[in-house]
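Memo subject: From amino acid sequence to discrete backbone structure tokens
Keywords: amino acid chain, backbone geometry, structure tokens, three-dimensional fold.
Body of memo: The sequence and its backbone structure tokens, given next.
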Amino acid sequence: MIRVLAALLVTAQAAVAQTVPEPDDYRMDHYRAPVPASIAGGTTVGPEEAHELWQDGGVGFIDVLPQAPKPANLPKGTIWRDKPRDSIPGAIWLPNVGYGAIADVTANYFRRGLEQVTEGDPSRPVVIFCLEDCWMSWNAAKRAIEWGYSDIYWFPEGTDGWQLWGYPLERVEPLEPQPSQQG
């Protein structure tokens, strides 16, 4: 029954997504909003296709959910805890690489992550995701395509859709400290 409801939900969301045109450039604000149904130069996949790719192996998975930085002005003695992230097993988490404009240090961080999951082969397939209705994954996929990665899968439902289908999640940490937190 849950799979039937999930399929109906995905179908309804696809109908809504088709009304959002694919922009020519990166999305620069309002990142949590309906997304397009496609990405030029890449392949859009749903939860079932993403799960098949995951099961088959040989495909890198990159989670681009943002992570809030530790506030610089916390009073002394304040305990800071990052919000935990549950993601697709085996995925690497590269927070904040999906903003519309990113600093060179963040672009280099993203490039290192892409290099790792593709083992240096830009033709190796990569699935890029975040949450449902999150432009971060669309922006990151577009950026990877522009950098010459030729087999990019964009998974717009992200971990929300993955979890809805009952697929496993695991706790992840960022691949390395965010560039803004290094130093």
